[in-house]
User: What shape does this take?
Amino acid sequence: MLQRFLQPIRRKLLDKMVLRPTQHALPAPHMERVMLPCGSNEIECFVQKTYDDSRLPDLLILKFPGTAGRAERATAFPVSMLDVKRAAVWTWNPPGYGNSTGQSSLSTMACAASDFYTGVTKDQARPQTTIWLCGNSLGCASVLHIAATHKPNPARTGLILRNPPPLRHVIKRAASRYPHLGLINPVIAELCDSMDTMKTACNVDVPAVVLQSELDTLVPVDFQNEILKHYRGPFQKALLHGIGHDGITTEQHEPLISNCVNWLWQQTGSNEHP
Assistant: This one.
């Protein structure tokens, strides 16, 4: 009985520790705003395209920002690094972010991400469309959940993961500076399996590019490498020298990133597109 009473409290505390939702208006003049149904709620998406007609893209990119990210701030990366004329980038605001309805919660985020993936791909992808899922930090948990659950075609699907976090390790490390560390363990235990990247990575076999910030103190590179030990698919790592978790890449990083991105394009069937 006590555990049943404490569970929702612990889950809310976990959400407070990890999530940073905002709902204030942000300008996005160069993107199309789309609302997708998600159960009884709606998901707000922002879309960028490299073409003007109604045909479907050859490359469809779905983006999942980090814990304080917003779709309105998304760029078209990595489209400019590729020789592809028909690309579309869809970025979501998870529940409780922007104008997406519903409560921001780790326990429901993976399900909402799955609905976002299904809703976009069923209308915007053909069998020969290449689909890339791009996650930044916490967004990587949603990406790995989708890849593990939906089992997309590895010849047509790729992942780009920037600073993917093993959430249990990250939360425990962040809490280590405070007294009574042992009290955090029951809270961490409430993390659902669908957002546990150490578990979902074991069930993903699609090609991936992993962008690692060398000076990341929130999700150290060693933490990220622990996830990759469990990853079943082929991957390329790019160590981004001199920047932290939220650091902005510079021209010096572009050749390395571009090489990895083009490797992913080769892996996911670029030469078969009409």
Observations:
- Residues 2-272 form a domain with the Rossmann fold fold (CATH 3.40.50.1820).
